[in-house]
User: Fold this.
Amino acid sequence: MRRSAAETREHLLEVAHESFYWQGIRGIGVDKIAAAAGIAPTTLYRLFASKDDLITAYVERADGYYKQWFDAATADDGRPVRDRILSVFDAQVDQVQPDRCRGCPFLMVLAEIPDRDHPAHRAAVGTKRWVRARFGELAAASGAPDHDGLADQLTLILEGVYASVQALGADGPAHQARRLAGLVLDAAFPPG
Assistant:
């Protein structure tokens, strides 16, 4: 099957996702990814100048999908903002099931690539900042007096799920995220 350069690039990124996400970024070589994709390494290097470029493209692709997921969960479709916020945690329950989740790909990148100047590291940090900013927008829209504090708390709950799910499972502490987010939202609106 003959693919265009754009189709080959997307195919490579799909294979890279499967490899990097499930086996680790540093544990997988470019030759192995090229072989799994059914292409020559020279083709891979025509599309990505280096493994670092491939890693960065993998993170940027994951970022786009993650933002779509988050935005779909919080869509302004007439629901109260509180329900839109809680829907992130409902959607996360499905997202972190063991058959499809090894943890947060962005946290994995941050752990495997500690160099803050590496473009993939910066992209992963950018995703985390974006999530915090989106929670901030939602918290502000909810009318919470301390919307920055509320955004921090919601972000911490979301990140806690990703951090705990691999060791303790989706039915462990992660299972309490929505309930905890509801308590945090209740506490954000003091009586009076």
